[in-house]
């Protein structure tokens, strides 16, 4: 409760609510439909920047370009994103195309190339249709605005199999100034801890240095985006980029600043909302599943157990079928490779106790069925060993997941 009091949710906010940002999107022809497939976020001043990237060994060309841009001096003016094509595992040509996207967009908005980040998402192993990308880049600056409609255009442009756009904004009071933190993301399949098949973008008008922003972004990622799973796969293109314009008027944030905790809480909330939205929007999913682990020997142990339970195909299938099969939960706990006392574990599905001190508890099957039919399912595991805690998010495993991924390229 205390953390929530440090920030306020801006219900009508968007990624352009923080001062200095514009965004937009358009259809350039990379997708077969008329949905937008090219978008950008632009800052009117050099923005302190930070990034977190996929752990997959096969990293797409845009990852290399974006790393290079951020590491050049820690600042960005823009990020350009396409969907419909991942530009991954495309060799030398893929790198050249990513660099051309960077330089062409930089020229179109009048900034240097090393101030632009690039992101792509879509099918792996196919070259970009650069004639369409070039035309789209040339038309994109005219679409960049600072209103919510333009932000929604950007959100549409980054989607692949997503069913919904994902955007959130909060405000915090720092040095008597209102500071905004906003985020947008895409992600639906190939979602797994340690980044997911996601693209995430955070904007803020806080004054904060690149190193401090990087530290906070990585910390927030570890508690949010690194705690979601849909299908156990990690993609080639995942990245989370944050940009801070510094236009809110606060003094620069450091760990010693009295506003540090409030800003950190706000950033973590933005990341958590986006992470849970990705998990809820998992391909074919009908339910958001939350696994809470308490009483582990450490937070790291709790983290590993929560990830194992949320990633279990058997647990996910049971949730889809509204089957209160707690045996699948306890089996996942036991194979997580972490210390567990087999005599002291409690398991709850919602508020329904199914296991207490590792002994089955008679429970109302009909009540459990009704609870599991809901669109949010919370599983609580208490090991009664120490104070380690963690929370992970995922979704159920449905017939539609197979249908969607069996025909992804067609």
Automatic annotation (TrEMBL):
Example of a GO biological process term: ornithine biosynthetic process
Gene Ontology MF terms in the entry: L-glutamate N-acetyltransferase activity; L-glutamate N-acetyltransferase activity, acting on acetyl-L-ornithine as donor
EC number in record: 2.3.1.35, 2.3.1.1
Catalytic activity as recorded in UniProt: N(2)-acetyl-L-ornithine + L-glutamate = N-acetyl-L-glutamate + L-ornithine; L-glutamate + acetyl-CoA = N-acetyl-L-glutamate + CoA + H(+)
Residues under site feature: Cleavage: 196-197
One of the Pfam families matching this protein, by short name: ArgJ
Subcellular location: Cytoplasm
Active-site residue list: 197
Gene Ontology CC annotation, any one: cytoplasm
SUPFAM superfamilies: DmpA/ArgJ-like
KW Acyltransferase (keyword) present: yes
Family annotation (CDD domains): OAT (cd02152)
Family membership: Belongs to the ArgJ family.
Subunit structure, as described in the record: Heterotetramer of two alpha and two beta chains.
PANTHER family assigned: ARGININE BIOSYNTHESIS BIFUNCTIONAL PROTEIN ARGJ, ARGININE BIOSYNTHESIS BIFUNCTIONAL PROTEIN ARGJ, MITOCHONDRIAL
HAMAP family hit by this protein: ArgJ (MF_01106)
Protein name: Arginine biosynthesis bifunctional protein ArgJ
Originating species: Paenibacillus catalpae
